Structures are given as C-alpha cells and as structure tokens.
Amino acid sequence: MMGMENGTRVKWFKVQRQKEEVSLDAGRGVRDTGVGERKSRNDVTVKNCLIKFKVFRFNKKNSAETKQRSGCPRTFSEERWIVRQAHINPKTSAVKLTLKCKSRFRKSVNPETVRNVLKKHKYYGRVLRRKPYISIANRKAKLAFAKMYVKQSTEFWKNIIFVDGSKYNIFGSDGNQKVWHTPNTVLHIKNLRATVKYGGANQLVWDCMASSGVGNLDFINVQ
Predict the structure, then answer these.
(1) How far apart are CA 29 and CA 23, in angstroms?
(2) Where are the alpha helices (DSSP H) in the chain?
C-alpha cells in the first residue's frame, strides 16, 4: 500500500510539473508572438486564468518561474481577534493581549507581534489626553441645554452676555517646561527654573462679551 501511495504521489507531482512547464511555455509564447490568451489556451490544456497570471508575472519580472517564498512562514492568524479586543478596550496592553491569546487559542505569541499587528491596522500606542471628567448625567444635561438654545433667533442672542474669568501668573508659570541639556549639566543656571516663596503672585481678571462688543477688563484683588 505504501509503495502504491508513493507511486501515485510521484506521478501526481510529475503531472503538476508538466502543467507548469506547459503554462510557462504558453506564457512566453503569448508574450513573444502576441497570440491571444484564449487561442493559446485552446492549444494547450491549461486554464485561462493560469495563463493570464503567467503572462502578468513575465511582463512584470521578466520571469514566469514560481519562486520560493522568502522569510519565515506565517504562524499566527488571529489578527482580527486582536484588533477587535483593542477596539473594545483601547487601554489594554500588548502583554495582556498576549496572555488572553495564549489562554484562548493555546498559542504562544510575543508581545512585539501583537504590537506589529495593531500597527498594521492603524492602531498606535499613545499617551492618554487629560480632560475634565463629565458623568453620563451631566453629559445628557449639557446636550439638552445645547439643543434647547440651538434654534434661538438672532434677537434672542443680542440680549445675552457671556462672562469669563482667568488667572495670570506674575512670576513663572504653572505648566511644565522642558529644556535640552547635556549629561551632568542639570544644575546649571540656564537649565533651572527659578522659584520664589509662596509660589509667586498672580492676578485674577474678569471680562464680558456680547453681540455689541467686548466689555472692559476688570482686575479682581483677592486677599
């Protein structure tokens, strides 16, 4: 039985090799003589799509031979599952996705592979933006307030005054500031940010705005 199976397999490989050689010769003949693919297909017993593919490869690479695939063969095929998990929970890490994949599919995956899969589908790791927290109830209330006034007329907005206040530091800034420095120069004067006692002084200002123009700037003194 084993001898018959081996003989059948060898015969099958010979037939496939002959078909490839015939299709290769047909593709070259179509390229050199300008004969149409359909007429060439009638001359040899090969599918029309195979001849078109051979002609396309010969025109592109000047060779119709089937080359061996380069690189390591692909062993991980659960890309859609990883992308779906990242879409459901964007805050999950590549290491956690690796552990979930190992427990679900019984496959050992490197975290770098998970990162490459996400980058391939336009998912990039970035630092979270800081925004004030707004609860679901407040979101609904703000949306209802906006919908209530979105269709008001121009005459209505002429009677509305918008007010706002702001704080300005007299010495320094409350935000973070970065500096470029070489090693062992972190304590140089030009690489330091000077501070004063009690954080420095600041000034509160208040202003208003209406359809007629901008109001006067008022300074608020807080003891």
Answers:
(1) 10
(2) 2-33, 37-43, 48-61, 79-88, 94-105, 111-120, 136-149, 154-157
Per-residue model confidence as pLDDT tens digits over 156-185: 988 889 999 888 888 777 777 788 888 888
- The structural domains of the chain, with segments of one domain joined by +, span 78-121, 129-220
102 and 108 in contact (C-beta within 8 Å)?
yes
Bridge partners of residue 219, in order along the sequence? 205
220: three-class secondary structure by DSSP: strand
- Residues 76-126 have pLDDT tens digits of 778 889 999 999 999 999 999 999 988 888 888 889 989 999 998 989 988
Both structure tokens of 218:
């008022």
CATH H superfamily, domain 129-220: Ribonuclease H-like superfamily/Ribonuclease H (3.30.420.10)
Check: CB of residue 189 under 8 Å from CB of residue 203.
no
User: Side chain identity at 36, as an amino acid letter?
Assistant: G
| DSSP secondary structure of 134-182 | --HHHHHHHHHHHHHHTT--HHHHTT--EEEEEEEESSS-SS-------
Q: Which residue has the tokens 């060439």?
A: 40
